[in-house]
Amino acid sequence: MNIGIDARFFGPKAGGGGLGRYVEQLVRGLEAADAEHQYVIFLKPEAQAECQFTNPRFKKRLAPIPWYTIKEHLFLAPLIDREKLDLVHFPHWNVPIGIKTPFIVTIHDLILLEEPMSSRASTRHPISYAIRHFLFRIILGRAIERSVKIIAVSQYTKDAIRRFFPKTPAEKICVIHEGVTPMPSAPASETLATTPYLLHVGNAYPHKNLDFLVRAFAKFHTIHPEFTLVLAGRDDFFLNRLKSETKNPHVRFVFDPTDADLANLYQHASLLVFPSRTEGFGLPALEAMAFGLPVICSNGGSLPEIVGQAALFFDPANESELISQIETAIQHPQIRERLIGDGRRQAAKYSWKKMVQETQQLYVWRKKT
Fold it and tell me: Environment class of residue 185 by beta-carbon count within 10 Å: exposed (0-12), middle (13-18) or buried (19+)?
């Protein structure tokens, strides 16, 4: 088979965290594992140097086309179609509407439908945002309808697809979980904070519920003044807006953390707090567990499915419940030790190698059909 992958999101820096890591691990894993099929990897210019292949079956094609733009729909489809591929994998919903090549699409979440018109969800004028949201619904709907298969990263996401697009056959959607990326160990002497701290890792989009976390922490800090809160995420409008609105000097921001920075933060934190109202997967919770960091987790979206019984849960609208769960984890050593052990075992259930194998099987399924 000749298989294409739209890898313009390649790498967590270019792709914005979890999506970029997903694309990177997919491409690197396939290169290491597949000695049978031919691959064409479509990359943005900034990823050309970072994405190097030793497998002669893998070839790069330059695709200097920004995502979520008109150019994507005018120029990406002809660029892919001219390769005469048997199949192309789009790792996100933004499939160009004119594509003729058969394709598989990965849907990570349907947050833009679950929280469609949040007044804080965009930097754009509400009318402009409403138009873009309407176009998103059309593009997403066409991708779901025209795809030969859909990969959902959780059962929650699969159920959401069926809820918003009820004509989609259940058998068309395959649940393939993401994995946990091994990170470098930080020297014990190196720490990014000098006091005990609660940690959040991830972007600051409205559904992440970080304004709620900051308010709850302010109340928690009056009882436990020795703690600080560290928010680590992408340097963008949303995190900068949160920083400008946060007057609490005990809240610290870490912008664009590297994997080494994240390893450092995970290793020295007291707890990871994950307050999202909804998630398609929730990778930082598993990364924290892999480091032996206890997790306090919202019961929203896919999170109960992904972390199982290895976290303490709270209602993402209930500040008192969150504070109570934090106090439980820091004041009861036996519960903390149980969370650490259960968390390591839970994180070990997820691997990028397994994700690559299951995705590759889906490609082969297409060949057989």
Answer: exposed
pLDDT in tens, 93-124: 999 999 999 999 999 999 989 987 554 555 66
CA dist., res. 178 & res. 183, Å (int): 16
Residues of the chain with pLDDT under 50: 119
CA dist., res. 252 & res. 88, Å (int): 42
Q: Dihedral (C-alpha) 15, 18, 23, 28: value to the nearest 10 degrees?
A: 120
What pTM did the predictor assign?
Answer: 0.91
Give percent helix, percent strand, percent coil of the chain, each to the nearest 5.
45, 15, 40
- The beta strands (E) that lie in 224-277 are given as 228-233, 251-255, 271-274
Q: Which CATH superfamily is domain 197-347 in?
A: Glycogen Phosphorylase B; (3.40.50.2000)
What per-residue confidence (pLDDT) applies to 117?
A: 57
The CA distance from 292 to 275, in Å, is 19
Distance, CA of 234 to chain centre = 12
For residue 182, give both structure tokens. 């091994």
The domain 2-179+351-368 is placed in CATH, from the list 1.10.606.20, 3.40.50.2000, 3.40.640.10, 3.40.50.1110, at 3.40.50.2000
Q: What is the pLDDT of residues 267-281, one digit of tens each?
A: 999 999 999 999 999
Residues of the chain within CATH 3.40.50.2000 domain(s) are 2-179+351-368, 197-347
